[in-house]
Write a structure and sequence with these properties.
Layout lengths: L4 E7 L3 H12 L4 E5 L13 E2 L13 H19 L4 E3 L2 E4 L3 H11 L2 H4 L2 E5 L14 E4 L3 E3 L1 H14 L3 E3 L8 E2 L4 E3 L2 E8 L19 E9 L8 E3 L3 E4 L5 E4 L13 H14 L7 E10 L8 E4 L6 E5 L5 H18 L14
Parallel strand pairs: 1-2, 1-12, 2-9, 5-14, 12-19
Antiparallel strand pairs: 3-8, 4-8, 5-7, 6-7, 10-11, 11-12, 13-16, 13-17, 14-15, 15-16, 18-19
Helix pairs in contact: 1-7, 2-7
Bound molecules: flavin-adenine dinucleotide.
Length: 353
């Protein structure tokens, strides 16, 4: 091998590319990560919420136990490696938006697998935080958030230190896939994995995959004397940070999908915050950010090999729950590349072929 050869080239140092690089390096592979300085990174914007009962019906997906276990394991491993805390366990208040949602909660209580995630319900007059919750809500367990900006920074430092990082804006036309190797930016490898987030839409090697991107805006707020003790999750969510600020989000847009912050997004979020907590007329917006969730039509990831170019792979489509699911799927893809174990069928891109 030439000195700049490696086993796997990864395009994108978001949470997906970073996790895959970590797992492959742990298995003894030589990895090379190409990234453009997080120019369009959704990981750098995300709140990093871990919520095992997402959605309006609080459905527990069958894979949730495995996802939670892998996430716990990986974030703990990273804490030991870097001496920093990335995952913050925090209880979550789920606010009902309707009577119908109260019934979904009652139904979930009858399911033994969901029960471990569901705490007690409360009505509008007994919400544990001083907020408006007209339909009440319930306490949810096994929740928290991952400090993704801190984690992305530490992992970038690790890649740089081991000379695994190439800072470069990759043009897809630079990629030259052969039968057994692929070359790009002066590096040759056995394979190249695109972990390019929402930019997959404009990536001619995989642009036929059904990505369903969604723009989101998010605010950091100073809320004066009120420092909540819970993550709050209703029509919007709120995460109390260690520095006394809260993160509040998020908007959901399916058109005009770009990374630009907007006045309309800021107004929507500030109004929503005031509806949640009318007793706090003065909140200070510290920061506004926008990003694109790399969602998919069936809400499962897009993982697999290019049908015509076996050296090219996709690891993408983590939607709005990358912090929970990426650690598990990164291990599955690393195992598949190393040992040929099967990819999880629900995430394999061959489901669309
Ligand atoms: C407002 C908002 C809130 C969110 N909140 C949460 C949440 O609470 N919990 C949660 O789990 N998820 C949340 N998400 C979703 C989360 O961000 C994603 O699931 C996850 O971060 C996706 O990671 P990724 O690595 O696939 O993509 P990205 O983080 O987008 O990483 C892709 C990387 O590749 C780089 N790149 C792309 N193309 C190229 C190229 N050609 N050359 C070089 N570099 C390239 C990009 O610049 C970027 O650094 C949220 C997203 C948004 C927008």
């Amino acid at each position: 091998m030439a000195s700049n050869d490696c086993d796997t080239i990864i395009v994108g140092q978001g949470l997906a590319g970073s996790a895959l690089a970590w797992k492959l390096a742990a298995a003894g592979q030589r990895v090379c990560v190409i990234d453009d300085g997080h120019a369009t990174s959704s990981s750098a914007v995300a709140a990093g919420l871990i919520n095992p009962l997402a959605g309006l019906r609080f459905t527990r997906r069958p894979e949730v136990g495995a996802w939670l276990g892998a996430a716990d394991h990986w974030y703990t491993e990273l804490t030991h490696s870097f001496g920093r805390t990335f995952f913050h366990a925090l209880p979550m208040l789920r606010l009902f938006r309707s009577v119908e949602q109260q019934r979904f909660h009652e139904r979930r209580l009858k399911d033994p697998a969901s029960r471990e995630l569901l705490g007690s319900a409360f009505d509008a007059d007994h919400c544990p935080e001083p907020i408006t919750a007209p339909f009440g809500g319930f306490n949810q367990h096994r929740t928290g958030y991952v400090d993704l900006p801190l984690l992305m920074g530490e992992l970038r430092g690790w890649l740089r230190q081991h000379q695994h990082l190439v800072e470069h804006v990759l043009e897809p036309t630079e990629v030259e896939p052969g039968k057994n190797t692929v070359s790009v930016a002066g590096v040759r490898a056995q394979r190249l994995v695109f972990c390019d987030g929402a930019r997959l839409r404009a990536n001619p090697w995989f642009d036929d995959l059904p990505l369903a991107p969604e723009k989101g805006e998010i605010l950091n707020l100073k809320t004066g004397d009120w420092q909540p003790h819970h993550i709050i999750n209703g029509a919007y969510w709120l995460v109390p940070l260690e520095n006394g600020e809260v993160r509040f989000g998020a908007t959901h847009r399916h058109s005009q999908i770009d990374n630009r912050i907007t006045e309309a997004g800021r107004t929507e979020l500030v109004d929503a915050f005031h509806s949640l907590h009318p007793g706090l007329p003065h909140v200070h917006v510290v920061r506004q950010q926008a990003g694109i969730r790399p969602g998919t039509v069936d809400r499962y990831p897009l993982i697999g090999q290019h049908p015509a170019h076996p050296c090219l792979w996709a690891f993408n489509g983590f939607g709005a729950r990358g912090a929970l699911v990426i650690p598990w799927y990164a291990q599955r893809l690393a195992d598949h590349l190393q040992h040929g174990t099967a990819l999880p069928a629900e995430a394999d891109i061959r489901r669309f072929s």
